[in-house]
Design goal:
195 residues; mainly alpha; Alpha-Beta Plaits; two-stranded antiparallel sheet; flat
């Protein structure tokens, strides 16, 4: 503090900047895994009545009700995986597909940049040190593959036999549904009417 008051320059933030830059891949991985991957594991079981309470109670409006005759919840990339929809669903219809997580992991982690850049080397001279291009290609592929795979799951889950299968092989229906201590289902219904 004394050196600042004397007008001297203090560069103590450089060490934190360096640590932040070193840890930036972890932040990027958390963004992809924590935000985009986990939100695409939710689905509505056959117990879903299409009431839309999950979409109404979502604090970030990440759930859209899709469908004309019997609408079903669709989780967007805005989902923060707070699981409020799961906790307050009156029919306990919101599930998490652990088997789909395994499939999605293998799809999303394919080394697409390696195959793409290797194929392009026949036509375009590509240097070996294209790390940033590889990272951007893999990031874009991961987001697109998660989106497309979830879209396929969303449509396949409408088939009753597949819905039952996905529901029975998930562990989520064995867990106790968490409720915020001071929030009741009637509070959520009142909140959604006020919005």
């Amino acid at each position: 503090m004394k050196s600042i008051l004397e007008g001297k320059k203090v560069f103590r933030g450089l060490q934190f900047l360096l640590v932040g830059l070193i840890l930036s891949p972890i932040s990027l991985a958390y963004l992809v895994i924590g935000r985009f991957f986990l939100s695409k594991l939710f689905f509505a079981s056959s117990n879903c009545t299409g009431c839309g309470l999950c979409a109404k109670s979502c604090t970030v409006k990440a759930i859209r009700m899709v469908g004309s005759n019997k609408s079903r919840p669709y989780w967007t990339f805005a989902c923060e995986s707070c699981m409020r929809c799961m906790g307050y669903c009156p029919n306990k219809a919101v599930e998490v597909s652990h088997s789909f997580a395994i499939i999605l992991y293998f799809i999303a982690t394919l080394p697409v940049s390696f195959y793409l850049l290797d194929g392009l080397r026949n036509f375009i001279p590509i240097e070996h040190d294209v790390f940033l291009i590889k990272v951007l290609l893999d990031y874009c592929y991961t987001l697109v593959s998660i989106f497309v795979a979830y879209l396929i799951l969303y449509w396949l889950i409408k088939i009753p036999l597949l819905n039952k299968l996905c529901t029975y092989i998930t562990f989520a229906h064995f867990y106790r549904r968490y409720h915020e201590p001071d929030t009741a289902l009637t509070d959520i219904v009142v909140e959604s009417k006020n919005d």
